[in-house]
Amino acid sequence: MHLNVAAALILNEAGEVLCVKRGASKFQSTAFKWEFPGGKIEANETAAQAAVREIKEELGITIEAIADAPCVEHTYPEFSITLQGVLCVQTTQETPQLSEHF
Predict the structure, then answer these.
(1) pLDDT tens, 6-22?
(2) Domains along the chain?
(3) HEC sequence for the chain
(4) For strand 20-21 and strand 34-35, is the pairing parallel, antiparallel, or unpaired?
């Protein structure tokens, strides 16, 4: 199985990047690991659009995609992934709500 995923690199005013820790996963190799939040890129969707949508769904915050970041490909034991980075900033003052992460 191959996944195409957008990873939101969300910068704050201090230049820090938001990372979250995954919860339990059907993929043992990625459970409880740190990651940049994001998710699968849907058909007819850009990486930037996917990042904005996924962050709203997963963390309940509003972000703006400002630039593409590096793309990385990796193979895990259970799947392979193309991870498209998207540099983002939060556009509102909501506090992230961790529903899938901790």
Answers:
(1) 999 999 888 899 999 98
(2) 2-90 (3.90.79.10)
(3) CEEEEEEEEEECCCCCECCEEECCCCCHHHCCCEECCEEECCCCCCHHHHHHHHHHHHHCCCEEEEEEEEEEEEECCCCEEEEEEEEEEECCCCCCCCCCEC
(4) antiparallel
What single letter denotes the amino acid at residue 28? Q
Q: What is the pTM of this model?
A: 0.88
**CA separation for the pair 40, 50 (Å, rounded):** 7
Give the closest residue to 82 by CA, choosing from 70, 90, 68, 98.
Answer: 70
76 phi/psi in degrees, rounded to 5: -95, 170
